[in-house]
Recover the amino acids of this structure.
């Protein structure tokens, strides 16, 4: 019998109406088959574990990613597939982080949540949950990736981004095609799914959180740039630039970046655009960034850039190794 493990971390999805006063309250996923009887028709064995306390995903931290990864690691051999229920707000960050922490993943890890609680009449929760379980149970093909299933679309987790807070279509993956679409039948785009790696699965929980994020905008005060660059302990910075990786050519700005790089900080250039990629040197406004040693983030999302840097900085790499790993796709996070 196919065995599925559900890890319920919190978020909007897990709310039902209290039978006494009709108020929305967290749903006991231990009793999931009673609450969502449709799931019995799959004929799968479904076990669930709930976080206590349940978390709004705005409160999720790298320590919680480690906790999730360890739970999946313990259950890995006993189950065919995994579903993680998570708030949508930071789901793309968690999906990215787990994608790097799970080395040689050979089973589906499908994250989902919902925009309306499972107890609401017009909820999207049941559909998302049912489809996530079906995808996690698929043996042909096996989606051996950390994914986000939302509104009938299966996204590679480290390519997705939350782009809408009120529509059921809450996620987008602009730079990479969906892995599957659920319509009358589930249509897998097998060419887009990562090939299976025939090596033992391992969970790598060594993360280094000394990573910053700075979004550029016209008129950004130099003092703010310096304050970020001089943050104590900061080892790497994701710099959200304009268009194809462009930034101001103001000499003070370039000099601040140059000094930070000279002192050992890694600066990763990621575009503010939802789609497209960084192309250092294409415009005059990125030539100096390239010459002072800013590294191209290619077409990575900000969420995946932060997670990849936390993961790589945790691995005691030399500067050259770190740059080499940033330039290649480790889990399908960039197109090279
Ligand atoms: N604030 C909620 C969360 O991210 C929203 C949601 O679940 O969609 O936990």
């Amino acid at each position: 019998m196919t065995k599925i493990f559900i890890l319920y971390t919190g978020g909007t999805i897990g709310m039902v109406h209290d039978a006494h006063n009709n108020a929305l309250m967290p749903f006991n996923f231990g009793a999931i088959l009673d609450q969502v009887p449709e799931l019995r028709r799959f004929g799968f064995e479904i076990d669930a574990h709930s976080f206590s306390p349940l978390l709004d995903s705005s409160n999720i931290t790298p320590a919680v990613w480690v906790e999730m990864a360890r739970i999946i690691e313990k259950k890995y051999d006993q189950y065919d597939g995994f579903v993680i229920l998570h708030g949508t707000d930071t789901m793309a960050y968690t999906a990215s982080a787990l994608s790097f922490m799970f080395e040689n993943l050979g089973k589906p890890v499908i994250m989902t949540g919902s925009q309306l609680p499972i107890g609401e009449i017009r909820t999207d929760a049941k559909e998302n949950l049912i489809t996530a379980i079906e995808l996690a149970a698929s043996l042909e093909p096996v989606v051996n990736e950390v994914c986000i299933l939302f509104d009938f679309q299966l996204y590679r987790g480290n390519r997705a981004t939350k782009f809408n807070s009120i529509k059921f279509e809450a996620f987008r993956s602009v730079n990479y095609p969906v892995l599957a679409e659920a319509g009358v039948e589930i249509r897998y785009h097998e060419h887009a799914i990562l090939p299976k790696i025939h090596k033992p699965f391992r969970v790598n929980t060594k993360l280094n959180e000394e990573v910053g994020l700075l979004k550029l905008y016209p008129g950004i005060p130099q003092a703010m740039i310096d304050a970020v660059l001089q943050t104590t302990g900061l080892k790497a910075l994701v710099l959200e630039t304009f268009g194809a990786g462009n930034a101001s050519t103001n000499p003070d700005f370039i000099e601040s970046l140059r000094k930070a790089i000279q002192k050992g900080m890694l600066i990763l250039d990621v575009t503010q655009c939802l789609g497209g990629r960084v192309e250092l040197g294409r415009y005059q406004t990125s030539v100096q960034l390239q010459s002072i040693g800013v590294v191209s983030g290619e077409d990575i999302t900000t969420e995946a850039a932060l997670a990849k840097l936390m993961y790589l900085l945790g691995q005691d790499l030399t500067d050259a190794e770190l740059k080499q790993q940033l330039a290649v796709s480790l889990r399908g996070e960039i197109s090279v």
